[in-house]
Amino acid sequence: MTPKDCIVERTMRMFVSHGIRAVRMDDVAQQLGVSKRSLYELFGDKEGLLYQAMVRYFDDSRRRWAELSAGAGNVLEQLFMVLGDVMDRSEETGRLMDSLKRLYPAVHDKLMREGSVRNREELRAMLRQGIADGLFIGSIDIDLAISVLYYTASALVSRRDLLLPEGISERKAFVQIVSTFFRGISTAEGLRLVDAYRARYE
Question: How many domains, the chain?
């Protein structure tokens, strides 16, 4: 890892722990033992450092998803694992993105655009794999399915004030709603697996 990468990594952890507003360039310089001048030469300003730190945050998420789902039996189980982790970490991610939207809207919008492209590409590959494996029906419109799943998951993650029936946890609600989506595009074998994974990952 280069010195610049180390700065990005450690600063990302500071933003996660203390909040974006609270972390100043002075704090980064002091905590990391580098000069403010070096920080400005490397990143331009706090916005430049913040952008790179948040890119690292989402790259770390993708690495974690790959590790988490390495033992999945099929792409459907992989989707349950990844989406469950998204839900479990939604409070932290939502807090960071809400702060970005308020304080650094240009950074927020750039990350959202870039993230949407990557997420859609990954979902497209997974849905195609599910079709090839006989878990999803081949006649689905993949791009429409991606939009429904992406925006449903995004809404559930960002709307933590969602009114839920008494006694149902956010995770259980999330798994139930995602399961309903998968049931709608599944073959008979896919349906069997959806029901099994729903019971396991709630």
Answer: 2
Same domain flag for 48 and 140 = no
Question: Same structural domain for residues 30 and 118?
Answer: no
Look-up of token digits 């280069």: 2
Note down the domain range covering 41: 1-57
Token pair of 58 as six digits: 């989402």
The DSSP result for the chain, as a single string, is --HHHHHHHHHHHHHHHH-TTT--HHHHHHHHT--HHHHHHHHSSHHHHHHHHHHHHHHHHHHHHHHHTTT-SSHHHHHHHHHHHHHHTHHHHHHHHHHHHHH-HHHHHHHHHHHHHHHHHHHHHHHHHHHHTTSB-TTS-HHHHHHHHHHHHHHHHH-TT----TT--HHHHHHHHHHHHHHHHB-HHHHHHHHHHHHHH-
pTM for the complete prediction? 0.87
Would you say residue 66 has pLDDT above 80? yes
Is pLDDT at 74 greater than 80 in this prediction? yes
- pLDDT tens sequence across 132-154: 999 999 999 999 999 988 777 77
Domain at 132, CATH number: 1.10.357.10
63 in a structural domain: no
Contact 32, 49 (CB under 8 A): no
Are 3 and 74 in the same domain? no
